[in-house]
Structure formats: structure tokens, C-alpha cells
Amino acid sequence: MDESTGVAPSRTRRWAARLAITTAGASVIILVVMAGLRGVGLLAIGLAGAVVMAAALWWALTRRGLVRMIAVALAVAAPVAVIVLEVASGLLRVLLVYLALGAVATAAGWAALAEAKPTVPRTRSVPPPQQPVLIMNPHSGGGKVGRFGLREKAEALGARVVLLDPAHHVDVAALARQAVAEGADLLGVAGGDGTQALVAGVAAEHDIPFLVVPAGTRNHFAMDLGLDREDPSPSLNALTDGIEMRIDLGLIGDRIFVNNASFGAYAAIVQSDAYRDDKVGTALQMLPDVLTHRVGPRLTVRTKGFAVDSPQAVLVSNNPYRVGDRAGLGRRDRLDSGVLGLVSITVDSAAGAAELLRGERAPGLTVLTTEEVLVGADSNEIQAGVDGEALTFPAPVHCSIRPAALRVRVPQDRPGVPRPRPRLDWRRLGRLALPGNSTRPASAAGHGQRPD
User: Fold this and answer.
1) How many CB atoms lie within 10 A of CB 355?
2) What is the three-class DSSP state of 314?
3) CB-hemisphere CA count at 13 Å for 150?
4) Distance (Å, rounded) from C-alpha 287 to C-alpha 296?
């Protein structure tokens, strides 16, 4: 029985677990037998190179002038030196075999631990809206509204389109409320995630469906809904052939967010007037003071049974982001789990930066889920980046989750959210590989039958 699913593992998953354990063991044996202590020494050199590079990057971010230049050179030189030493050792082939077997073991482990049926949000078929209203920003995403002919396509599908004038400030939420007052039974946005959040809040307030058209720059919200970010046009098909799901919304103070609210270093940098014109230069200029707490407030993070003092960066998200899967960083597997994601980073030295190589086990990294977060500061105000918008809130600021608050209309045919990679758990792999575990099919689970 697989304790994570309550269902007996399939034969394929069992053999994948056995392959993972066999190839992992073989990689260690080959390294020890063919390279001896020299092979172990080269692994230690590789680890030392990673530590030096992490420490050097910390110095590069927290220093200026000559010290920063030396730190950057050291960060580049460390991995180069490791490669040169490995080639000079004459054991490069052994190391390549070791890495290849490690890659096979990892892939097999992922296959063994993958869920047979990943959790997907519940959807329901719905009739087309009668009076849909879409708010479009013609300058968003470099002009995607015009480039993809979104206005004309939406109007051809029966929607009323309201074009924003970027030259004048417009209260987008007020526009959405006016549309509802005039009879709109669906609200939609073709624009960035900040605008999406404002109108989504109005749709949730009136319990009418919301349509996301990914016409912004990054379109993270659309990505986690499984929409096509390259071409926003197919999202309009939800007007005539759509399904509906309920998702959560985040709340910071009294403002809705669909993605996340960021505090600390990033929030301070995006507040700068120079950031929009020179993002990299502004960040490099401000980071030394922000990361070392010479500028900006010292933050505190409080949630049920947990507290963090003086973190440099805090991210509160509407549902948690993937952390262990590097290929899926920046993605959320679900938007309906009913919890916030919380990630905070506290680093006070180069040694602390090197410890981040330990991932979630690093003492300076906090990763958890919760229903409420209170972010405080030693000042009267807290800067935050909310769905990409630079905002300021009175301190402390309260973040919470509103489960199933928003009805989202999406097209039947859409790319979907890629399946997440499971975390490699070698103990669980060992239990899967053992021949004594149950092999009964999934259909027998829950019917009172004893495992074989």
C-alpha cells in the first residue's frame, strides 16, 4: 500500500522504484571502486566550489565597487576551477558515468512516486453568458490586444469591450462595478495580473464568473489556470464553449490578489522611480543597503505557531508555489487548496547564503502553508509588491485566504497545468520496491478487501 495515496502501487511504479534504487546504488559503487578516495575527493571539491560560489554571490549582492567586482570574478572562477580539477584528475569518464546513473535514478524515482491521477480542480459545464463585459488594456504586454485582434474577436463572440486609456488613470474596479450595475453577467480582463486582480475582486463580490485573457507580460495567473500564454485568443472561446471552476483569492488588507504579495527586498526595489527604466541597475544599486538592513524596515512574520524575525524577503501567495521542483519554480499546482503559501528568506552572512544550498532544510529558508499571515515592521508603513504592483500599507498588514471565492470561466480546450514532479523520498521508494507490499489494483481500494 502506498501511504501517500492509500492505493496499492502499480507494477510499473514498483519496477521504477527498483530501478531508481539499483542505479543510485550502482553510481556510488562505481565511484568508490573505480576512483577510490580520489572520486570522493572530487565530489568534495564540487561541493566546496558550490559553497564558494554561493558565498561570492552574497558578497556581490551586498557590496559595491571593487569588492563586488572581485566577488563576481570569484563566483565565476569557482565552478571553472572545479571543472579544470576534475578534467586534470583523469577521472572525468568515471564522474560522467556517476552523473548519468544519478540522472537515471532520479528520473526513475520521479516516475515511481508520481501520482497516477493528479488532483485537478472540479469543473462544471455552463451555458454561455448573455451580457459579458471585457475590460482590455491596449498597451499591456507590448500591445497584445491589438496584435491578436482581441477586441474584434471578443465582440464577434457577443462581448461588450471596454478599452482602457493608458494616458489617463482609470479606476478599473469602478468600471467593473458599473458594468455589473448595467447587467453584466460575466466580467473579463485582457491585461496584466494587477488589473486581473482588481476586476476579479468585483466578480467575486457579486458572485458572477470571471474570464482571464492572458494579454499581460508574464501572465502568471493565466499560467496556473492552464491557459495558453503565447496566444491569448483561445481564452475567448470560454465565452461560447466554457467550463467553470471555483478558485481561492488572497487578501492583503482589504485588497484582493490572485498571485502573491511580496515584502522586503523586492518590494523596496520596485517602489523606486528608477526601477521601471533600469531594473538591473536599480536593483544592483539598492540591494547592498536593503539586504543588510541599512535601508528599509525590519520585518516580522507571524502565523499560527510560527514566527520569523528580520527576513530579507517574504512571499505570501494565493496557494503555495512549487519549491522542490526546480523545473516548476514559479508555478502553483492548485488554486483551490484553501491555504496561503509562505516563503521567507533570512540571510545575514556569506555562510548563511551557502546554507541555502541545503534547500528546504536550510535554517534561513521557511516554506509552509497557512490560512493567515501577519507581517509587521519597525515602521508605520510596509512596502509590498502585490501582483506586480508597488503598493504601501499601514503596518502591520494582515494576509488571508478566501476559499472558493471566485468563479473562473475557462475554455474546454486549453493546455492545462503540467504535472508536478514529486519530491524524491528514498524511504518511500524503498517501501515501494519491496516485494511484500500490496499489489491489489486501485479499483479494489475502499471495498473492504484484504491486501494480498
Assistant:
1) 18
2) strand
3) 32
4) 11
Rounded to an integer, what distance in angstroms lies between the CA atom of residue 56 and that of residue 79? 12
- pLDDT (tens digit per residue) in 308-337: 999 999 999 999 998 765 544 578 989 999
* pTM, entire model: 0.85
Q: Which candidate, 124, 116, 156, 203, places its Cα nearest to that of 422?
A: 116
| pLDDT at res. 116 | 59
pLDDT digits (tens, 9 = 90+) for 347-356: 999 999 999 9
Strand spans (E) along 58-114: none
Predicted confidence (pLDDT) at residue 54 exceeds the cutoff of 60: yes
Burial class of 105 by CB neighbour count within 10 A (0 to 12, 13 to 18, 19+): buried
* Backbone region of residue 149 per phi and psi (left: phi > 0; alpha: psi in -120 to 50; beta: other values): left
* Contact by Cβ (8 Å): 136, 162: yes
- Nearest CA to 219 out of 210, 227, 211 is that of 227
> Shortest CA distance to 22 belongs to which of 112, 95, 92, 93?
112
CA quadruple 249, 255, 258, 263: dihedral sign = negative
CB 194 within 8 A of CB 389: yes
How many CA atoms within 13 Å lie on the side-chain side of 372?
9
Angle at 10 between CA 6 and CA 14, to 5 degrees: 105
Chain segment 363-376, per-residue pLDDT in tens: 999 999 999 999 99
Least confident residue range of 63-72, 88-97, 149-158, 167-176: 88-97
User: Which residues, other chains included, contact 369 with Cβ-Cβ below 8 Å and sequence gap of 6+?
Assistant: 320, 337, 339, 340, 341, 342
For the cut 50, the answer to whether the pLDDT of residue 78 exceeds it is: yes
Give the three-state DSSP class for 382.
strand
Q: Are 211 and 135 in contact (CB under 8 A)?
A: no
pLDDT (average), residues 103-132: 86
Query: b/e string for 288-315 if b means 16 or more Cβ within 10 A?
Result: bebbeeeebbebbbebeeeebeebbbbb
**pLDDT given at position 274:** 83
**pLDDT value, residue 233:** 95
Distance CA 197, CA 256 (A): 6
Helix (H) or strand (E) holding 131: none
Residue 370 corresponds to which cell in the numbers above? 497557512
Mean of the pLDDT values across residues 21-34? 88
Q: At what angle do helices 172-181 and 193-206 cross, to 10 degrees?
A: 30
